[in-house]
Design brief:
GO terms for molecular function: transferase activity. Keywords: Transferase. InterPro entries: Glutathione-S-Trfase_C-like, Glutathione-S-Trfase_C_sf, Glutathione_S-Trfase, Glutathione_S-Trfase_N, Thioredoxin-like_sf. The protein is an alpha+beta fold. Helix content is about 50%, strand content about 10%. The chain contains eight helices and four strands, in the order βαβαββαααααα. The chain has a four-stranded mixed beta sheet, covered by helices on one side. Helix 1 packs parallel to helix 3, helix 1 crosses helix 8 and helix 4 packs antiparallel against helix 5. The radius of gyration is 17 Å and the shape is globular. The structure holds glutathione (GSH). The site of glutathione has 13 residues, from helix 3.
Length: about 220
């Protein structure tokens, strides 16, 4: 049995969604970021940096969502969700897989400073503005690409969309997507996928965001 170690609305949603796209049976072990369970020695033995996702699969334990994505697609090659090494789109696929983490690292920084940091600690408004600008910059190539095609790969939906698509569920807490109509249409397409909806049903309630939008100006 495959077991996913998961926090609701976190990067482990990528794996949850991919498992649904692949139609694989799995169990979910739920954790919370705020209750210390990710620092429990039992969990650290599974994921040494105390992060999710971690996946128990085929007698192995894998952490890092991109590695999990890669392993699942390569060990289930009939899925067709990742181009093989000799396919032309392989480079694009690998690029977007890593780009998802470039973008997610900015979202994680904004989460840390605007959502998790508690008084008397105060974020720097200048740093927040810089991070929002950096996040917007990562949206530009996506907006352009998604004006030409429905998914990250021209040939259609792939596991790269489960990696990067998840990010776009968090981006609107920090960037108004009004100026990014192609990204908004992409988000609608991904949310319409039955596997995405089944994953949402397993996800659990998010416990991070208490308002719809976080602005650096709120800290000025
Ligand atoms: N590069 C890792 C990042 C994993 C990660 O940092 N996950 C966050 C949730 S989005 C986490 O587990 N945070 C817990 C913590 O920082 O203590 C991946 O893609 O799996």
């Amino acid at each position: 049995m495959i077991t996913l170690h998961h926090v609701a609305a976190s990067r482990s949603f990528r794996t949850l969604w991919l498992l649904e796209e692949l139609g694989l049976p799995y169990a979910v072990k739920h954790y919370k970021i705020t209750d210390g369970s990710l620092r429990d020695p039992g969990f650290l033995a599974i994921s040494p940096a105390g992060r999710v996702p971690a996946l128990e699969v085929d007698g192995k334990v894998i952490f890092e969502s991109a590695a999990i994505t890669q392993y699942l697609c390569e060990s289930r090659p009939l899925s067709g969700l990742a181009p093989k090494q000799d396919e032309a789109e392989r480079v694009d696929y690998l690029q977007w897989l890593s780009f998802a983490e470039t973008q997610a690292s900015i979202i994680a920084s904004l989460n840390l400073q605007m959502v998790f940091l508690r008084p008397p600690a105060e974020p720097s408004v200048a740093v927040l503005k810089l991070e929002v600008a950096r996040l917007k910059l990562t949206l530009r190539p996506l907006e352009e690409l998604l004006g030409q095609q429905d998914w990250l790969l021209a040939s259609g939906f792939s596991a790269a969309d489960t990696m990067l698509g998840y990010n776009l569920t968090a981006v609107p807490f920090f960037v108004d997507l009004a100026d990014f109509p192609n990204i908004r249409a992409y988000v609608e397409r991904m949310q319409a996928r039955p596997a995405f909806q089944r994953a949402r049903a397993q996800d659990g309630a998010q416990e991070f965001y208490s308002k719809p939008f976080y602005s650096p100006e709120d800290y000025a």
